[in-house]
Amino acid sequence: MGKVKALKPRNIHRCQACGHVESKWLGRCPACQEWNSLVEEVDAQGNARTSASGIADGHAPIAISEVREIDGADRRSTQIGELDRVLGGGLVAGSLVLLGGDPGVGKSTLLLQALAGLAQHGRILYATGEESVAQTAMRARRIGANDARLSVVAETDVEKILAHATRDPAHPPAILAVDSIQTVYTPLLDSIPGSLAQVRECASRLMQYAKTSGVPTILVGHVTKDGGLAGPKTLEHLVDVVLQLEGDGGPYRVLRAHKNRFGSTQEIGVFEMRGAGMAEVANPSAHLLAERAVGAPGSVVVASADGARPLLVEIQALVAPASAGVGRRTAAGVDSNRVSLLLAVLAQRANCDVLDRDVFVNVAGGLRLAEPAIDLGIVCAIASSARGRAIDAKTIVFGEVGLAGEVRAVPLCEQRLAEAARLGFTRALIPAQNALRIDATARAELGLELVSIDRVVTALGWL
Ligand code: TYD
Ligand code: MG
Known about the structure:
Number of domains: 3
Number of strands: 23
Largest sheet: 9 strands, mixed
Oligomer: single chain
Strand order of the largest sheet: 8-7-9-10-6-11-12-13-14
Structural class: alpha/beta
Helix content: 25-40%
Number of helices: 13
Bound molecules: thymidine-5'-diphosphate, magnesium ion
CATH architecture of the largest domain: 3-Layer(aba) Sandwich
């Protein structure tokens, strides 16, 4: 090799499938014959950090009962209630948080707002590799995040970002944010920014920094088309917290914790994207139902509880004559494979065959619902549209639908019902097994008429 690399440690290329090591990159691993499996790494001899988890503190083992618990005092509030709740009560010292989501969903906006809120704890260092300093400042002014304690640097070299962070050891930043992990790189590797090798190495450098300095560090990460955090599936087990910001077209965004070493993964946060940034939605059910098409066939309200928080959401279906000879299915906000399955159940088990027609299913407000408890809602919306008969506006439904056309119990039944009662609903179609477990006193307290449903056909009969 003619290239002079005097200043760089020698890098290796390790097969991700079998662990075989080559000195140069190859398209195919000579050991296990896997294609495209070699990824560049800094040679472990000169640099052991790639594999270090960063939490080793060099102390002797101590009794687990003697270890102080993480409490409120260790958490830094972002001043955004919905975000704090998903984090488990604020950012924990020394934690590494990954904020993921589709491009344009609002990650940078939410981050900037959170950083402005965190500025009360001290100086914030925001490294942006996606947008220029001027663009970031313009956005900060627009969304009211224009705080003098927030310093921004357009830098993509992770070593330089860390140099900025550690310049004044007596005054470390209160928070370090890197937007995004796909744009940063370390010159120690030859791989391009965004490659698996770079993403992994940069993230582990930043983790090392967070753990040794105690500075909470936030990384923004993009999601690829197949839904994974680009490259960083590997990042998910490296970081302490994985937050995912979701939205499906409409103005609403749901923030979930896919992983949280310091809190529950059941909490969700709901936001609305407005002209002046992300606004917290404190009463999401009321918002989501505000524009409902009351009295129109194909519309039904489901009580979803993705996470611990019940949400009432309108599901809409439209069944139309097939435009292309064969029936098409289009689903927004729900899994289209699930819709296909439910259409087959409707046809085979409930005398409602719309397989030869076009079927559109939509979750109003642009939310994405992933739990099976909304099955019964999808089925009822489709049947309602197919038959041209509207569903009573004060009725909610939920239940998981099985292949035999049976309606199965779902978790958090009482919380869903309480939310429905709170918003003025008068009747609920719920799985029979759930209904059995609710006694007379609980029923009276709810003030809802409960209809016990064991099969899809029964539900359709009722509606
Ligand atoms: P952004 O935070 O840049 O998304 P990400 O970092 O996830 O790629 O937000 C992108 C979109 O949000 C952009 O298309 C414009 C819109 N937006 C608003 O509607 N209101 C606002 O106040 C801001 C800042 C952005
Ligand atoms: Mg961005």
